[in-house]
Structures are given as C-alpha cells and as structure tokens.
Amino acid sequence: MSESRADDMITRSATSGEILLSCQNVTKEFSVAGSTITAVDDVSLEFPEASVLAVVGESGSGKSTLARMLLRLMPVTSGTITFRDQDVTHLKGRDLREYWTEVQAVFQDPFASFNQFFTVGSLLRRSLALAKISKDEADSLIEECLGYVDLRPKEVLHKFPHQMSGGQRQRVMVARALMMRPKVLLADEATSMLDATLRVNVLNVLHDLRNELGLTVLFITHDIGQACYLADRVAVMEHGRVVERGTTEEVIFSPQGDYTRRLLSDVPDLRGSLKP
Amino acid sequence: MSTERPQHAPSSTGVLARAQNIRCVYGGGEEDFTAVDGVSIALGEGEVLGLAGESGCGKTTLGNALAMIAAPPLYVLSGTLEIDDGTIDLSTLSHDDVKRHRPYRGRTVSMLPQGAMNSISPTLRISSLIKDVMRAHDPRITKDEALDLARERLKMLEMPVRVLDSYAHQLSGGMKQRMITVISTLQNPRLLIADEPTSALDVSSQRMLVEMLLEMVEQRIMSGVVFVTHDLPVLSQVSDRLAIMHAGRIVESGPTRQLVEDAQHPYTRKLLGSVLDPSQETRARGIARRSAPVTPEEVGER
C-alpha cells in the first residue's frame, strides 16, 4: 500500500483547481444485530473543480455509502463535509435543498429511483417545477439533456419506468441529474447497465461537461477500464478505507498495493481466456 | 448485412442443440415490434456460446424464447429447438403452448434470468428456497433429497455448505449470484441460458462466477451454456464461440479468438472498439477525447 500517495493527495489535488467539495475524516458505522460495522472508515477526499475522481473497489468496500454521505442522504457518524468552503455536514431544510441543486447524483439502480406510477415526462417536469423553471424552458432542457444520452423525448416521455430497459432507465437518470446544471455529479455505477457503445457515449458526455461547464465528477465504479478512460485521479477503497490513491496513471499503471494489483489482475482481458 | 462465417456451427465433438428460425414479437399495442428476426444458432456439446449486442438488440428475448418462458406481450411466432434427438416447437401463441413447454423447463433448458439474485425471498433461508424450487419441478422429491443434492453440488464446486442456512441479506452479491446459478442447474439441465449473470458484480466476483460456470460445464452439470451479456471482455474469457446480435439478427458469429482478432462486420468492430480496458491505449483515448472538441458526428450519435 502506498501511504505516501495518500499523504500527497491534498498537495497534488490542490494544484489542479479550486477545491469545490471535500470530506475530512468521514466515518460511517452501522449497528447490525448488536454489533457495529464500519462501512466507511476515516476517509478524506478532495474534489477540485472541473476534475473527475474515480473511486474503485469491490462490492461492499464502502463506495456507495461514501457517495450517499457526500450527497447528504445519509448522516455521517463522524467527520466533516465541505462544499465551497462551507460546512454542509448538518445542513437542513431550504439550505439542503439548495445544496442538492448543485450536487446531483446518478445511482446504480435506476429502477429504485423512479416513482413507478409516473411517466418519465412527469418525473422530469416535476423535478424542474420544484426548481421553479418555466414550462417552456423545462421542455427545451428536457430535450437537450435526453439528447446527451441518446434518447428522444418522443420515445421515452410517455413511458412508465417499467416500460423501459435497464439501460434506458439509467440514461434517463443521467439526463435528470444534468437538467439541474449541477456543479458536482456523484455518479455511482452510473453506466453499469449500459452496453459498451452507449457507455462510451455517456462517458464522453461527462468529458464534455467537465470541459465546457466545469462539472466536477465523483465517478464510482468497479470497472477500472472506465476509470482509466475518464478520471484524472483514482482512489481505491477496501473495507471502508482508501488504501491507494494518486493520478490515474500512477494507480492503474504502477499500483503499489496488493489489493489494487489484485483488482487489476481480475479485470477480464478481451484477448485472454479462462477456458481450460 | 450478415457476416456468417463457415465456423458458425460448432466444430467440436458434436452438436448439443440447434435452434432454427426463431421469430419473436412484442404485441398488444398498436403494432407488433419484431425483437428477434429469424435467428438460428447451434451449440456443441460442452460448449459456451457468447451472445453479445447492445441494449434492446433482442438477446434477452432470444434467451427467453430458448428457455421457453416467453409470456405476453412477448410472442414466439416461430422457432424450433433440436436437442436430445427431439425437436421442440418453441412457438408460444396460446396458453396450451405454455403447458406444452413445462416439462422441458429446468431440465432440458434452464434459465438464469437477469437480476435473479435480487429476487431471492428475504424471508426464506437458501435451503427453503432450494426445497421450493426442486419440489415445484418435481413434487415427488423429498425435502431431504433436495437438500442432499444441493450439499453434494456445493461440495463439488468447493463452495461453503453453510450458505444453505443463510438468508439473502447475509450473502455478498457474488455469493448470491453463484448460489442462484447452482440452484438453476440442480436438475442438470442440458442447456443453461445465463442472462447477464455478471453485470451486477465487481471484477473479482465476476471472475469467481465465470470460473464456476466453466467448472460446471467441465463436470457436465450442464452440457452447454448460452451466455448473454453486453460485456465482451467477460464473454471472450468464457465462451468458445461468439454471436453478435444487432436489431434482432445475428450479424456475425465465429470462434471467439477469431472474432475478437479479426471482426468482419462494422457493428462488431464498433462494439470491440468501445471496450474500455485499463490499458495505456484506453488512457490515451480518454486524454485525447477530453481535449478534443465534440464533432458533429458525435452529436449525431447521441
């Protein structure tokens, strides 16, 4: 494991741009049947503006819990979350809703994120109405953002969530998050249900939004190939802790930790075979 | 355009199954939508056939037709499956067809549906689930016999037998998916249709599942697998041959290595070109894409 890389993190990231979002010593504990499980253990990360940080690790490593805390959907057990130099760890009410207009998320299970009784059109328009955006402006925003993810309004707006494929639902989720013109996007396995060609398209959209609008992205994935394509920096999580971090080149092409090396060795190789 | 190679048919020991001219439509609306358009595939004994293609290309629908679990609004208009010296009419146009297919399900062809691991009842131990599943297929089997069979199978695959006493929430995603795979093959089906079994798993769990599936084929728990996924690197590791689907048709098929190294169809090349592996080449593409302006073609693609 590379402790020195972990120590270097703040220095390196600070040179990349203004720190928009950060968490300091964040811990999350759950009580299960009388015992305590530490899902996230003393994690500190910084997100410079217009950068992409990928958090990789296997299932259960604490990636999604970290994202939920950063989004303020889940309280921290200890630690601090800072956005634009303001402590947002305990925001409530209107302040929290304002925070959510700037920090949006796309989660790995889009089916769980939609109300099954509303059409996609209702869901998207309702999001914009809550943000007090006029109907005309809402319609053009919806068309623009669905276009980012290769969907046409005519094809999806009248459908209920169960009438779409997993990939379509995931793309609608991405479009919905982008409609709010967020400064930070927390993408938790946001492309896991997409096939390879669509996945590249969505990753390219994130590239473009980062370049053109200065979008900051936390990209949570177990697919190191996607991190390799998109991220500026990579943090590797194991059992709730960040065990290695650095630039994408450092972590992926010269990993220091055993866990990172194992993750990389398990990535299926297009030209390899496990057949005996 | 169709790029059927001469190696389209299995070349190994013998043909296990041959599906001919499968046509599926989704009906019930204003007009029918053809999801599978006259597809024929063949599978050799002990072979894994990888079925790849983008979302909505018809691969899951084809899997459902082969597993004989098509239900309205999906209708199988035509298609036959030759397996074990018999020919099964796959068409499902009425309720009688559903009854006709019942004896084949789970034994001749078993289905491992997409997201099955999330469908395990949270209130049942795995052992109870196994008893229910086995007795649904064969009411004569006793609960003890069902559990003995499960224990024996877990030992054969070097999996912990204590999993039988667990509830779903006590298992990791990878373990749930392996257990579901074990349960769906307890009746030793001749053919397993595995629909996106690895998509929700991290790379380490994916590898364990793939190795287990290959072991199961090796041990002849099942005689062949149709492995459906959009993940080409996983398919290239597990399958002997690949079939690439696009818009309801198989546009190219052949031995895995040959197809990966020398794809002929433009769609196959596009799919292969979209794979992101953790390599210097992917990194260079990402950096180039990041600094490049968006082209009109890409805007059109979106």
Automatic annotation (TrEMBL), chain A:
It comes from Brachybacterium alimentarium. It comes from the Bacteria. SMART domains: AAA. This is Dipeptide/oligopeptide/nickel ABC transporter ATP-binding protein. Residues 21-264 form the ABC transporter domain. Keywords: ATP-binding, Nucleotide-binding. InterPro entries: AAA+_ATPase, ABC_transporter-like_ATP-bd, ABC_transporter-like_CS, P-loop_NTPase. The lineage of its organism: Bacteria, Bacillati, Actinomycetota, Actinomycetes, Micrococcales. The keyword Nucleotide-binding applies. GO terms for molecular function: ATP binding; ATP hydrolysis activity. The keyword ATP-binding applies. CDD domains: ABC_NikE_OppD_transporters. Gene3D superfamilies: P-loop containing nucleotide triphosphate hydrolases (3.40.50.300).
UniProtKB/TrEMBL annotation, chain B:
The keyword Cell membrane does not apply. The keyword Transport applies. Residues 280-302 are annotated as: Disordered. GO terms for biological process: peptide transport. This is Peptide ABC transporter ATP-binding protein. Gene3D superfamilies: P-loop containing nucleotide triphosphate hydrolases. SMART domains: AAA. CDD domains: ABC_NikE_OppD_transporters (cd03257). Signal peptide: none annotated. PANTHER family: MALTOSE ABC TRANSPORTER, ATP-BINDING PROTEIN, OLIGOPEPTIDE/DIPEPTIDE ABC TRANSPORTER, ATPASE SUBUNIT. One of its GO terms (molecular function) is ATP binding. Residues 17-272 form the ABC transporter domain. Keywords: ATP-binding, Nucleotide-binding, Transport. InterPro entries: AAA+_ATPase (IPR003593), ABC_transporter-like_ATP-bd (IPR003439), Oligopep_ABC_C (IPR013563), P-loop_NTPase (IPR027417). It comes from the Bacteria.
